[in-house]
Write a structure and sequence with these properties.
Length: about 170
């Protein structure tokens, strides 16, 4: 009769260079970290996933304790993160493209309806588009026909200021 002990099952799980269970742990960690990267797309967990993959390969081919494997994971992940992250960020960020509202700030617009914050009135035309407008300085009244400068964009309203004393009045 063959006697089967816990130690025997542990030995059955042994593979070349390390324990089968430890290799499975690194493989599962790799898959989880790749899934997290796909979900977040932040270029953070991918470096740890690669660290887990490298550690899994080292655990398979080398006779390492779990503490040594953990050290390999930490060191390789840190090196990959430190070297690759700045390069990847630079490539992915590229040039910032201004939104339409950012492009409108500083532009001149023509007042087509008196701008009066007390009455809640005010319309301007900017690049052929009719906008609601409010004065930058509350209480200021800007007459129809004036030329104003866009200071800010708040949704569908422009915050404007009288361009200068030489504005054209209609």
């Amino acid at each position: 009769m063959i006697e089967y002990t816990h130690r025997d099952s542990y030995l059955l799980l042994s593979m070349k260079g390390g324990l089968f269970l430890e290799i499975i742990i690194w493989a599962v960690l790799f898959v989880i970290l790749v899934a997290v990267e796909f979900a977040s797309v932040q270029l953070i967990s991918i470096w740890f996933a690669l660290g887990a993959l490298i550690t899994m390969l080292c655990a398979y081919f080398l006779d390492l304790s779990f503490l040594q494997q953990l050290g390999i994971f930490v060191v390789t992940s840190a090196i990959l993160l430190a070297v690759s992250f700045p390069i990847a960020r630079k490539k992915l960020n590229g040039k910032k493209i201004a939104t339409n509202s950012e492009l409108d700030v500083g532009q001149s617009a023509a007042v087509i309806e008196e701008i009066n914050s007390d009455l809640g009135t005010g319309r301007v035309t900017l690049n052929g588009v009719d906008w609601s407008a409010v004065p930058e300085d509350i209480g200021t009244v800007i007459p129809k026909g004036s030329i104003v400068t866009v200071r800010e964009v708040h949704g569908a309203k422009l915050v404007v200021a009288l361009k200068d004393e030489k504005s054209v009045h209609a």
